[in-house]
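Protein in question quoted for reference:
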Amino acid sequence: MTAPTRLRTDAGPAGAGGRVAVEGANPPALAVGYAQLWAADPGAWQAAGAAWAGLTTLVERRAGELGTDARALRVAWSGRAAMAADGRLAGLRGELASIAPALIEADQVLAEFAGRLAVAKGRLAAAVALAEGAGLLIDRQGRVGADPARSRPPSERDGAAAARVAAALRAALELAGAADRAATARLAELAAAAVDGWQAPPPPGRPAPGAVPVEVRAWWAGLTPAQRRWLVGHEPTLVGRLDGVPVAARDQANRLLLGARREELVAERRRLLSRVPPGPVGALRLRRIEARLAGLDALADRLAGPQAPRAYLLGLDPTGEGRVVVSLGDPDQADRVVTYVPGMTAGLDDAPGELTRVARVLGRCATLDPGEQTAAVLWLDYDAPDFLHEAATAGQARDAGPALHRFQEGLRASHEGPPARQTVLGHSYGSLVVGMAARDHGLAADALVFVGSPGVGVAQAAELGVPPGQVWASSAPDDVIRLTRPPDDLARQVLLNTSPLAAALSLTGRGEHELWFGRDPAGPGFGGRTFPSGRHGHVGYWDPDNPALDGMARIVLGR
């Protein structure tokens, strides 16, 4: 409980440079915390976590070497002793493999601590700015007082301002302390597991097929930490895809699968290269495989890097055009979460670029409010249209609806603490995915945002099932989607001659505010709210100088 505060004037008569402080709001126990937090370096903790995760490569290499040795022994050695040696080598490989999830978990703990520490430092900086604005100073021990350089004497108003600053300081320090305690507890549990054994016997039972995320979360909560580690290590495919399983566990499981997923693409490329000549169709397939490999490698670099915020791999499928779900920051710990659904042609090869868009929204959120912990998810877990004739139909958006619904429900189920504000953002065809998912299945979302939309499958914002006033849209003045509206022949002919996308979405006989998939969500009569965009075209909503980027960030923050 916070001690009561009262005004205290230090030595010196009023008007003679007396110092105003808040007595009882700056206990000695917090003075050290203030100095520690001011000097703390979240980036160093982030880098330390990445170093632990980097050891997984060494562990995998050693396990592979043991496998090679075992195969060589089988060729040259037989009999009972050979069988015993083979069994021992297999056991060693298993022990090495069991370490990898723990290394990833250590990375998660330190990265999450770094993220919460950064938020606490942001709140500390805000408290310092509040003090400066009120003409107050904060000393090295975290004590708040009047600036002796100012001419006017201290007043009761100064005391009230000092109390507000002290409360802000306390909140920042308490957040840092809570982060420290949580990280210490998790690392202590990991250390104990290293002594007692990483994994228990396999747990009985699995979620029933089609189990909803709340049921999955309840099943997971009923397991011991050792049982959870067993599942991550032995059934990563199951754990990695289950909505409702905590994000940290899904990330561990999917990272364990990352090498195998890459090898699938390499094997596919090898098969194509074995055909001489591959032919035009084979050459096209080869280029696409190479593009997916490049996208996967860039994604792997981001996953392995020390940059903040930490990336969490929540899903990966390299087949077809490739699917991926990645979060920057941990949605289970965040106060604000935005899920971004990209549009036409998006695939694994586009993941690095799409992740850049996610990072820009997240970065702008941090600039606008450094005291909030925000996570941003790239959700590319659907078959996006590759061709214009596919983009002109709603079939692929309709098919994506159940998966997006389950994912958002999973975020709600696995979140820790008070519910986060959840925003779902759709761009281009992705806005149709979001709209149809909300219309047909419902979305666990507090706000929906549509940019560059060809329509969202409804005529009114009220049909989307989110709170009133929380449907937002923006359409750039030079976005080709917007330009497909005019029904006059001259405008349409100009578009047909200059833009294949406009040709696919030409709207003969539609009303002024009608798009291909219903009323324009950025137009009058839809019932939503709009935010401005500059002339940045169909894909420029995330450009740093576009006001639309600020608009998206403010909606995510709930401003």
Q: What stands out?
A: The CA atoms of residues 279 and 488 lie 45 Å apart. The first strand starts at residue 6 and ends at 9. The first helix runs from residue 28 to 39.
